[in-house]
Amino acid sequence: MIRFTGRMTLAAAVISLVALGACANSAVHANSGEFASSSESPGEVLAPPINWSNPIDGDEVASLEAAQPSLGFTVYDPKGLGTRRSVFVSPSGTEKELAVVALLYETPGYGLVVVKQHLPDVPIADYDKANQELMEMNGLPTVHGSFDLVAIREGQEALVTTSEDGTTSSIFWLEKNIEIVVRGPDLDKTDVLKIAEGL
User: Fold this and answer.
1) In degrees rounded to 5, what are phi and psi of residue 67?
2) b/e burial code for range 131-164 (CB count within 10 A of at least 16 → b)
3) Distance CA 191, CA 198 (A)
4) Rounded to 5 degrees, what are φ and ψ at 14?
5) Which of 167, 163, 159, 162 is closest to 186 using CA atoms?
6) What predicted TM-score, i.e. pTM, was given to this entire model?
7) In the predicted model, what is the mean pLDDT of residues 93-108?
8) What sign results for the dihedral spanned by CA atoms 161, 170, 30, 74?
9) What CA–CA distance (Å, rounded) separates 133 from 118?
10) d(C-alpha 113, C-alpha 119), whole Å
């Protein structure tokens, strides 16, 4: 079994990367999101269905304050999404440097919105370069969907992944030393950009 976190996890799940390039090798962590190599096709990455009620398969906690002791970073409190429905952290025993927190919001305009936070899967100094490497995968026969680099919040670079049919997107960016990911079952590219701008 190989576990991926950060952009590579969601890239695989959202746009069904069939064969990960060398960039994926830098993103191996024991964390949320597990993918198995197919015995029929050794390079194939299988993305399990997302459990939207607990998208990181973590432990539910009562608040951000309750989540903080499990994390190797200071959790960011998102703005503009209303009252949180629930908070999940990586299962007990997960190393703090690998821990993830997921905040779930039920919004009138977007439906379910998941805001996931964790330390980035590459060094911060290499973050933009890693995004560019993902961009270079666009158009490969093994990639179903697309990567886009966009500017949010007065020039902050962010990565958007969009499914092959164009109906669902996720957005990833650095907020100081943590990576923030916004996704949801019904969010398209316009939605994730608007949420990121106001978060």
Assistant:
1) -75, -30
2) bebbeebeeeeebebbbbeeebeeeebbbbbbbe
3) 11
4) -80, -45
5) 167
6) 0.80
7) 96
8) positive
9) 21
10) 20
